[in-house]
Structure formats: C-alpha cells, structure tokens
Amino acid sequence: MGIQMKTLALITTALGLTTLLAACSNDPANMNDNSSNFQQELMLDNITAIPADSLSDAELTSLEFMVEEEKVARDVYIQLYSKWGLKPFSNISGSEQQHIDAVSVLLERYEIALPTTLNQVGAFTNQTLQTLHDDLLEQGNVSLIDGLKVGALIEEVDIQDLENALENSVNNEDIIYVYQNLIKGSENHLRAYVKNLSRQGVIYSPQVLDISRYSEIID
What predicted TM-score, i.e. pTM, was given to this entire model? Predict the structure, then answer.
C-alpha cells in the first residue's frame, strides 16, 4: 500500500510540472517483432525453470499491483498512438503487453486471479491506477511533446516502483527475475522517449528519479 500511495503522490506532483522538459541495441523504438518475441519467449521459459516458493502477503500485493501498473503504460501508449500516430508509442505498448504477460505468468503460477479488466483498454480494478491512467492520458493528449513526457514519466515511475519492490517486498527468485527484466525494459523505454523528445527539440529532465539514477540510465 505504501508503494501505491507513493506512486500516486509522485505522479500527481510530476503532472503539475508541465514546464519540465543514447538508444541501446534493444531500443523498442527500433526493435523488430522477431527480436522482441524471441526475448519474451526466453524470459517466459526462464521463469518456469525457477522453482516456485511460498508467497508472502507483500509479494501478493506487489504482483497484483504491478500487473495493472504495467497495464497503465500499455493502455496510455495505445491511446497516445491513436492520438499522435508516433510509432514508438505503438512499439512500446507492445513491449508493455509482454511485461503484463510476464507478471501474469507469475500470478497464474501462484494461483492468483488475473484482473477482470486486463484486456479492456482504459479500465482497471485498482481505482488508484484508474485515476492515474485517466490523469496521464488527459495530460498526454494536450500535445505530442506532452505525450512523450507522459511516456517518460510512466517509465520513471515503473523503474522506481520495481526497485522499491525488490528492496522492500520481494524475495522469491522468480519474481526477482521478472522484476529485474521489467526494469531493463523500462530503462529502454525511457531512453526511447528521451530520444524522441530530443528530436522534437526538448531537453528532458527527470520528474521522479533522482538525477544520478536517471543519468546512469541515459548515459
């Protein structure tokens, strides 16, 4: 619950900062479907190779929250692609679907029911995340630059929440493996959004991550 409330507070604060303004080989803006699908299949195979362990209440809460937090990213990007037609929104929404699939494998492994709205774009069972989605989409619809800033913000928050979970909530090896891979994916996505903002003449400043962590990712 602490992570959820922290996420809401951070995004609410960051959305008010409307004046704030390096790709690697697996940049989702340039990645082809075959490469992406191969990486996803490899990750899913590796999950099943790790022995399952007993699930703590904190891990249960984290998984239920994380699958919908990844869904926020996917749904916002789907709708921003429809609004602005910029290919990275489409590519990265596909990557976010893979993130959802990976967390869903863990939920099913531990016999946790998947959210009933998982396949409905823009609908969430978690009302905190419903509010976040709605606020982010409203901000991203203002302009293409605002949409790219929203994408970067979402990835910053994903990285921070995943790292907080690894530090405070998660001990099972299979969950650690998935979360570490989700962080790598979010780092790639953040780089892609920053690069696209640069193409629009905008120098992006981190809205959630501290400058040293942000610089580590971008540099």
Answer: 0.84
